[in-house]
Amino acid sequence: MDPISPLEQALHAARALVLADLVAREVAEADVVSLVEESVVQRRWWVEQWPEGAEFLAGLVAQDVQDALLERYGRWPLCPVCGTGDQHALEVEPELGPDPHWVCHQAGVKVAAVGALGGGGASASS
Ligand SMILES: [Zn+2]
């Protein structure tokens, strides 16, 4: 028995990625962090039933938190690409898959990987 199971590692990673995005968008207040914790608790149960879903956790937790924020705070994360028109939130794609990204469907662009919203020009290097 490992002290930290792969599932627990995946949950920790998902939690860290979503928290990083919340911090990047300056909404990482204490009650928002608790939304992440609630999602992680629920997804722990979920992934124990379906261990193959471990690599989907980051995208799922991001969507859980996005839904919870919509009820309490409003849209998150706001699209940084479209300067005009209605403000809208980015969406996670794929909804259920590995390597989730934040995308803007209006502009049709990938904005950042989940966890990299504050990454500042990762695509500008290289
Ligand atoms: Zn947009």
How would you summarize what this structure contains?
With about 130 residues, this protein is mainly alpha-helical. It has helices spanning about 5-25, 30-50, 55-70, and strands spanning about 90-95, 100-105, 110-115. Strands 1-2-3 form a three-stranded antiparallel sheet, covered by helices on one side.
Task: Explain the overall architecture.
The chain is mostly helical and 126 residues long. The chain has one domain. It has helices spanning 6-24, 30-49, 57-72; strands at 91-93, 101-104, 109-113. A 3-stranded antiparallel sheet has the order 1-2-3, covered by helices on one side. It starts with 5 loop residues before the first helix and ends in a 13-residue tail after the last strand. 25% of the residues are buried. Zinc ion binds at residues 79, 81-82, 88, 104, 106-107.
Topology:
Elements: H1 6-24, H2 30-49, H3 57-72, E1 91-93, E2 101-104, E3 109-113
Antiparallel strand pairs: 1-2, 2-3
Helix pairs in contact: 1-2, 1-3, 2-3
The structure holds zinc ion (ZN).
List keywords for this structure.
126 residues; mainly alpha; 3-stranded antiparallel beta sheet; 3 strands; 44% helix; 10% strand; globular; disordered C terminus; binds zinc ion
| Content-based structural category | mainly alpha
Molecular shape: globular
Strand arrangement in the largest pleated sheet = 1-2-3
Helical amount among residues, as a percent range? 40-55%
Topology as a string of helices (H) and strands (E): HHHEEE
- Count of spatially separate domains: 1
Strand content: 5-15%
Q: Uncertain segments of ≥5 residues (pLDDT<50)?
A: 121-126
Oligomer: single chain
The average pLDDT value, as a whole number, equals 88
- Tell me about the largest β-sheet: 3 strands, antiparallel
Q: What's the tally of helices? A: 3
